[in-house]
Amino acid sequence: MMKKALIAGILAWMLGSSSTHAQQTKKSSILSDSIWLDTQGQVINAHGGGLLYQHKTWYWYGEKRGRSQSEGVNVYSSKDLYNWQFEGLALSPSQDTTSDIAEGCLMERPKVIYNKKTKQYVMWVHLELRGRGYAAARAAVAVSSTPAGPFTFLKSFRPNGNMSRDMNLFVDDDGSAYHIYSSDENMDLRLAKLTDDYLSPTTQDSLLFRRQREAPALFKNAGLYYLITSGCTGWAPNQASLHTSSSLFGPWTLVGDPMTGPNANKTFGGQSTYVLPVPGKKNTFIYMGDRWNPKDLKDSRYQWLPIQFKDGQVVIEWVDNWNLQQFNKKG
Ligand code: DGJ
């Protein structure tokens, strides 16, 4: 009995001390491709994700993955972009087998935006119905009154009847929001303006270009819209493209591959997912991508890199270890 208690005591002490240790190692930089732990020392599981800044806090929403399965949408919070606290499962698959989000469905590339009029946090995800591979090609919408959720699933649909796979959301300066999505078996990239409550697409929905692209990440700087996309090669990396336009609905001009550094022509082995405008800093954006591990999706890594504007061109250079101080440098 005594022996058992002693062993249990030692185990508890070891577990306690290791998590305390994990909590104490505060991070102050971004190391793409390495394993990222949350403040409890657990591996961060938030792939294909997006960020939202609210109340001086960043919220990071991403796919919770098992080895191959999709397990919903996780959310983490941070005050500094380096140290992330796990907030829980923001959107859970449903136990109800008749639900569109029944366990076994695929939830990919979740993005959350805040609607000032309705005071709701609105999540959109690429949804595939359970047991149907990638055939359903739908978008799903969920809402919450708090950023960490849990979110309530509202509905899923094909926007204006169009197939909808890889996607992103974008809120323009006037508060209008847009859904950008790969359609027609990924041949088309489309953009739909959302209704004022951000819950549905309007019929202002049109083809941006037909070039077989996915993983869209859209941002705006000094009145110009920038769009980073990948090719369509499943989980395998390929070459990124940058398009620009002075108007969201186009015409979009192909600029080329904005990546530089080792393995740049394969997007450093990764794929775009989001571009984060850094609040309070002009011309300051962070490129976010995933380095997928198709053999064990939960082990996929994160690639976050500073976006540089050099002679009016967007340049995304591989940097091993960096932090926000990078943006204070001239040049
Ligand atoms: C590429 C997409 O960008 C990912 O989100 C995922 O759908 C994979 N294809 C599946 O092969």
Q: Explain this structure to me?
A:
This protein is mainly beta. It has a single domain, classed as 5 Propeller (Tachylectin-2, Chain A). It has one helix at 2-24; strands at 47-54, 57-65, 70-78, 85-91, 106-115, 120-128, 138-144, 152-157, 167-171, 177-183, 188-194, 201-210, 214-221, 224-230, 241-245, 253-256, 259-260, 271-277, 285-291, 301-310, 313-317. The strands form 5 sheets. It has a 5-stranded mixed β-sheet with strand order 17-21-20-19-18, with no helix packed on it. Strands 1-2-3-4 form a 4-stranded antiparallel β-sheet, with no helix packed on it. The protein starts with a helix and ends in a 14-residue tail after the last strand. Bound molecules: (2R,3S,4R,5S)-2-(hydroxymethyl)piperidine-3,4,5-triol (DGJ). (2R,3S,4R,5S)-2-(hydroxymethyl)piperidine-3,4,5-triol (DGJ) binds next to strand 5 and strand 13. (2R,3S,4R,5S)-2-(hydroxymethyl)piperidine-3,4,5-triol is lined by residues 48, 108-109, 166, 214-215, 234-235, 271.
Question: What would you say about this model in short?
Answer:
The chain is mostly beta strands and 331 residues long. The chain is 7% helix and 45% strand.
Q: Please identify the top-level CATH class.
A: Mainly Beta
* Beta-strand content estimate: over 45%
Query: Total strand count, please?
Result: 21
Main sheet summary: 5 strands, mixed
Please identify, by name, the CATH architecture.
5 Propeller
Q: Helicity level, as a percent range? A: under 10%
**Rg on CA atoms, Å:** 20 Å
Helix and strand sequence: HEEEEEEEEEEEEEEEEEEEEE
Specify the structural class.
mainly beta
